[in-house]
Amino acid sequence: MKKDLQTLEGRMRDSEEANALQPVSLDLRKTVPWIIFVLFFAVLNETVFVVSTPSIAAELALKPSEVSLVLTSFMIIFGTGSIVYGKLSDMYSLKKMVMIGLLIYGGGSLLGFLAHRYYPAVIAARILQGIGGSAIPTLLMIMITRYFKSRDRGKMFGIVGSTVALSEGMGPVIGGFISERLHWSFLFIIPLFTLLSIPFFLKTLPEEQPRGGKADFIGAVLFVAATALLILYLTDSRWPYLVISLILYGGFAVHIRRVEEPFIELSMLTNGRWVRGLLSAIALFGTMAGLLFMVPQMLSQVHLMTAGAIGWVMFPGAISLVFFGVYGGTLVDRKGYSRVYYIGLALYISSLLLLSILAGAAPWLLSAVLVAAYVGFSFLKTSLATGVSQTLTEQEAGVGMGMLNLVSFLSEAAGMALVGKMLADGVLEIPLIPIITASSAHSYSNLFFSFAIIIALGAVLYFSAFRRSR
């Protein structure tokens, strides 16, 4: 997700004292089922399209680089939108923001279903889904902090984390089943179920008076536009995209120096350990997103598997996040985040090297190796988030962890775009590993090996920042 709710949890807890003044308390038994329901269908949209990208590419005659935009367009908006909604919730009624998010999410989903034969409309629908969907996890976390009693919040944060992991794990299976039995366009119908929650939230959430404040919308628009054009350049290699992107980034840099509450705080860049932690996160989330995009392409092209079968190959690894995500957090508390990082690093790099060697092997064997990759990623993500949080003061925590969340999403989008571009151009179709006999598997094998190198470089940055930490 490709998304890190621990960062949102930290931000919510930082504001707990201010929100304690709210007199409203929600009924746990009535509210929890609806929170689980809405969150499940919101987060599902992050992974449900992954295994269907080969089918989408075949039907719309798209290159891997082009079909990657079906995933990356959603992630870019989802990542930046989570920060924007967090700020807006401090200015406007939470109830209205939830309603707006759900309606935009549903509208984008309906557009995607009705206009699925037109590629630009599919991308527009995914952008709208990102705009609306990004409201849901953010606002639900704020809702927990603002309206639940302090003794219930830890339990609720745990429920949220488990729901997110379950949704991400079920996404490939549900997406593959629907694509194979019906059609990939029906994946756009799934988010419409969230609209069923509107009557409940309208009745339950209190009316709030606008509290005022400032949101750096200009900065957000400049940053999102610049990033989107950079992703387009990585996808299509057209120089105008890069030039305009750099111009917009320049305008963004000038703008945030002139506003009181900028979208991104430049002062944070003086924190060297925090910056190195973010760079390490870029390597981690970028490679994992590239892997998630690449594996379905490989299983389709090399092993000629259907979307439904691909979903089941990926399911054991994805669902392992439900169990090992919680276990990794417990292990961090007991052994320290650096030790957990070492364990995750060994698992993740080993699995990438094995995938490189076994790219043409039996799908069941690849599925087993993917479990190790998912577990390693889960440990790395948990320990990295914990380590980065230790570099921040109490005043910097909200901005610093929010930036980690944003960087994670953008890295995922860039990782998928780069992998799509490299597969489309065939730049790695070189027989480097003798054991790989199928020529169609060379690119995938070499990409897995490249990912292992990138993770090793990210680990060097991590060690330089946290080697003396617990």
TrEMBL record:
Keyword terms: Cell membrane, Membrane, Transmembrane, Transmembrane helix, Transport
Compartments, record wording: Cell membrane
CDD domains in UniProt: MFS_MMR_MDR_like
Keyword Membrane applies: yes
Membrane spanning stretches: 34-55, 67-85, 97-115, 121-144, 156-178, 184-202, 214-233, 239-256, 277-295, 307-328, 340-358, 364-382, 403-424, 444-465
Predominant location category: membrane
Domain of life: Bacteria
Membrane topology note: Multi-pass membrane protein
Residue ranges occupied by any Major facilitator superfamily (MFS) profile domain in the UniProt entry: 31-470
SUPFAM superfamilies associated with the record: MFS general substrate transporter
Family matches, as Gene3D superfamilies: MFS general substrate transporter like domains, Multidrug resistance protein D
Keyword NAD attributed: no
Protein name per its UniProtKB record: MFS transporter
Species for this entry: Paenibacillus residui
Source organism phylogeny: Bacteria, Bacillati, Bacillota, Bacilli, Bacillales
